[in-house]
Amino acid sequence: MHSARLELRSYRRPFRQPLKTYHGLWSLREGIVLKLTDDEGRVGWGEIAPIVEFGTESMGQAIQFCRSLPQITPELIEQIPGEFPACQFGLESAWETLTTNGAIAHDFTQCHLLPSGANAMLTWQPLWQAGARTFKWKIGVAPLNEELNLLENLFGALPAGAQLRLDANGGLSWEAACEWLQVCDRYPVEFLEQPLPPDQLSEMLQLRDRYTTPIALDESVTTLDQLEFCHQQGWRGIFVIKAAIAGSPTRLRQICQECQLDVVWSSAFETAIARQYILNTLIPSLPLSERAIGFGVKSWFANSVLDQPEFEEIWRSLEPVSARG
Ligand SMILES: [Mg+2]
């Protein structure tokens, strides 16, 4: 039986400035790089990049789980429990890179994440000059009227042809969501992402019917189980998919092909390892989405070996995961 040995190393990278969302301040991205080596010496790379606020396993749980695994086989990867979506992604993508030949780099239209609040006004211009046309702005972090004023200022400043995505991270009330959408309907807002908390799906279905600005689900559809549930409940709007925390890529492929979803691919602030798999292997194997991909997050970290394409170099730069994780 074809099997491989698993080794783990962990990374910690601070954000240049903490990312401010409704979930709070995020200042440090932690994750695990995994290396599979089979009997013939072939190597596969994977990454486990959990986001607990989105309902995934924690770093500690992922490390403990991986340490409990014997030799890695496809059968074992298939049996990873649903509570470990980031591990499902990391191990399955590593196995896939072990057993397939190199992927081809693709060019995608990117959406660029602006800082929340008034700092967005200082940031869009250099990105625009570098060719960016789609931007994302986090809302629900300051009082409603302040943010609505900022939105009007932002649209007053942005050149024609710019498109904005708004992301509330589930932080709005019903009334605030209605106010936002009334204003959004007057501007080129591509969509409002996750206006309400994940447990308010029927309210978001109502919002979708009431306003012309499209609604996207993100926190509601973090894992593939949640995604399938929302689809079964009649959600036919936009699905934001962070493949790195969604779970099994094989199952993701099946769902995307069967359900013909309107997908926005989105970063989970992963390193080049997960990013390259998602952009060069996973997305090209799926029906094409017209929407810009949400991987424009480079400016959020200092330059690092973690973003370059030589994975052995990334590996050498990291410490083995300590005995206690
Ligand atoms: Mg989001």
TrEMBL record:
GO terms for biological process: menaquinone biosynthetic process; phylloquinone biosynthetic process. Transmembrane segments: none annotated. Pfam families: MenC_N, MR_MLE_C. Mg(2+) binds at residues 167, 193, 218. Pathway: Cofactor biosynthesis; phylloquinone biosynthesis; Quinol/quinone metabolism; 1,4-dihydroxy-2-naphthoate biosynthesis; 1,4-dihydroxy-2-naphthoate from chorismate: step 4/7. Residues 118-214 form the Mandelate racemase/muconate lactonizing enzyme C-terminal domain. Its EC number is 4.2.1.113. GO terms for molecular function: magnesium ion binding; O-succinylbenzoate synthase activity. Belongs to the mandelate racemase/muconate lactonizing enzyme family. MenC type 1 subfamily. This is o-succinylbenzoate synthase. It comes from Drouetiella hepatica Uher 2000/2452. The gene is menC.
